[in-house]
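Appendix B. One record, verbatim.
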Amino acid sequence: MRFPHLYTLKQIATIINAKFVGDEQFPVLGMNEIHVVQTGDIVFVDHPKYYEKALQSKATIILINKKVECPEGKALLISDDPFRDFNKLTAFFKPFQQAVALIAPSAQIGENTIIQPGAFIGNNVKIGKNCLIHTNVSIYDNCIIGDNVTIHAGTVLGADAFYYKKRPEGFDKLISGGRVVIENDVDLGALCTIDRGVSGDTTIKNGTKIDNQVHIGHDTIVGERCLIASQTGIAGCVVIEDEVTIWGQVGMTSGITVGKKAVILAQSGISKSLEGGQTYFGYPAGEAREKYKEMSALKQLIKQ
């Protein structure tokens, strides 16, 4: 998430009532999770296990719960609860806007796009040309949709990330301030759910086709010309490269990459990154022919 204009380190510290290490005029351009940070961004870290990763990341401002040595060219924001204060910043820069109509006055809708009755189009949504948005589709604030996109009934774009911190009193939600971006020539089936990024974008790239009842988690990137069949569940922060085929009821853990032109057969469970150009099956998923050989060998053992 990039801020609307440059802020100083002191201004950000004032918003969250934190101490800081560095020049009070140190420039702050945005905030992001560690996997998408850029120069000028704030990243938060609240566990010693991840201190070094955060300090050495591309982020130049580290929101941290301990005073540590500040790397050269960076700044620190010292907080007793970085998770809470990251939420404060999200709420400050991307506050919730109540809807006032089924199609928000600030929405931009391209030429020849059809919005069927009952669809909800939120604040600052942009929809391109020649799209078809069916009834009961909900497109939350700030989503971006390209040209020639079809979205079938009941699909929801831009719901919050499933991201919580466990505390003694219960689960504390990380506020989502990101977007969903759907590029050109994408089809989305009925009852799909695509969560927005926490601070960045969840992206479906050009030409991808998605069947009914598919879930895609926050900050995931689905490449160009992919096919995803029904009841597939893809967790957050996944990268699916171009021309991947995923058959029905596949489940996928967070933070992995599926390589270009991979094929994942139905009901497979993906717990680690997969190379492109191969066909996979089973749980944990492996190269399909090898998995079939293992199953055949197991049958022979049982017969014996």
